[in-house]
Amino acid sequence: xxxxxxxxxxxxxxxxxxxxxxxxxxxxxxxxxxxxxxxxxxxxxxxxxxxxxxxxxxxxxxxxxxxxxxxxxxxxxxxxxxxxxxxxxxxxxxxxxxxxxxxxxxxxxxxxxxxxxxxxxxxxxxxxxxxxxxxxxxx
Length: 139
Description:
Elements: E1 14-17, H1 24-27, H2 47-50, E2 73-76, H3 87-96, E3 100-102, H4 108-116, H5 126-137
Parallel strand pairs: 1-2, 2-3
């Protein structure tokens, strides 16, 4: 029996996030894990990168700047999603409107959580990722 691969086309704005080793606590800080439902997690997604200590948007963070504030695709650095098995990280990303993260590889548990929750994680070579990162950074 031949392996079947599902193809999904995702269209949208891509934002470069060239940080390596972004763990699930960076994606979804533990202080946002107070709900017993999946609702309202978009606010916590990348909270420490998106907002300063007083809750104001950080203008230098890519997802706070147009056109990337409408991004549905992230081009990410190496080892994205490492750390704990925090499924809330994927839930929050999906609620924020992220449909795909393109990178060179992902932590195993994060990859499984993403697959279960409809977050596409295409894996590409470092050269392709770097080209995409550059193209996504052009406004």
